Amino acid sequence: MKSAALEGLGEVEAEVRAALPVSFFHPLRWAEAHSTIDISDGGTLATDDPKKYTSSRGHPAVCGEVLEAGGEAFAEFTWVGGRSPIVGVARAGVDLSTVAGGLHDTSDGWMYNCETGGHLHDFRGHATPWASGERQGIEEGQTVGLLLRRGTLAVYFQGRRIGVLCIGLYGRLVWAADLRDGASVRIERRPTPPEVEWASAHSGVDITREGGALAKQGTVSYGTPHDYRWYLGCILPRAPARSCGQAGGRRCARRWSAAR
C-alpha cells in the first residue's frame, strides 16, 4: 500500500514538472555586478562591500537570464541586511561600467525601493508614481515579489498583489538590483501568481484593465460612494455579480475582505 501511494505521488510530481517551463528548475543567479558587489550562495546572494565604496547612489547587479517584457516571469527579492536594496528590471545588455549611480538613476531601469516602496526610473530626486495601487515598502528580513507580465511590473507582498509599479515595458529585460552601504539581497525564482479578473459587476462599477484587472466605481444613479465598496465586496472573481440585498450590511463587509 505504501509503495502504491509513493508511486502515485511520483506520477503527480511528474505531471507538475511537465507542466512547468524548464527554466523554472534553474535558480536565478546574479551574473554581472559592479566591482563593489560580492556574489555568493551559488549566485543567488548579492552583497555590497562598504569598504569598496565608490558611489552614494548605489552599485548595480543584474541576472543573466533575459526576459521578454511581453511574456511572464516572477521573482522574489529578500532584503537580507544592510541599507535598503533597490530591485526591479533593467534593459538587457546595459553596460554596467557606464552606470555611475545605480540603474534607478537611468532610463534603462524600472526599480522598487524596498524600504520606501518608491518607484525609481530615471531618478531625479522624486520617485515616479505607481501605475496603480498603494505604494508600500518592506522591512529588513522581509520579501517582495515582482511580476513581469505583458509589459507591466506588479508588486506582491505576503502573497498579495499590492499594485502595479509601471506599465508600457517592452523589449528584452533582466532582473536587477542597486546596492549600497552593505546592502544584501537574495533573488529566487517563483511560480507566477494566477491572474484574477473581475468577470461582472454592479451597473455602478466599471471594469477596465491596467496591467491586470481593475474594478472601480463608475457613474452611479443612487447611493453613496461608500455603498459601492459594499456592492463590490459581493462580487467574486469569475462569478455572476449579485447584490446581497443589504448595502452597508455586515455580510457585505465580510465578503469585501475576502474578495480583495
Which short descriptors sum up this protein?
globular, alpha+beta, single chain, disordered C terminus, 260 residues, Jelly Rolls, 8-stranded antiparallel beta sheet, 3 helices, 7-stranded antiparallel beta sheet, 14% helix
Radius of gyration: 21 Å
The CATH architecture of the largest domain can be named as: Sandwich
Instruction: Provide mean pLDDT, rounded.
Output: 76
The strand line-up of the biggest sheet is 2-3-15-6-11-12-13-10
Proportion of residues in extended strands: 25-35%
Uncertain residue segments: 209-213, 217-260
The total strand number stands at 17
Q: What is the CA-CA span between the terminal residues?
A: 43 Å
The CATH class of the largest domain turns out to be Mainly Beta
Structural class by helix and strand composition: alpha+beta
Estimated helix fraction: 10-25%
Could you give a quick summary of the protein structure above?
The protein folds into two domains: 26-189, Sandwich (Jelly Rolls); 205-259, no CATH class. 14% of the residues lie in helices and 34% in strands. It has helices at 2-19, 225-233, 250-259, and strands at 30-33, 37-40, 45-48, 59-63, 67-68, 72-81, 86-91, 109-113, 119-120, 132-133, 143-149, 152-157, 160-166, 172-179, 184-189, 205-209, 213-217.
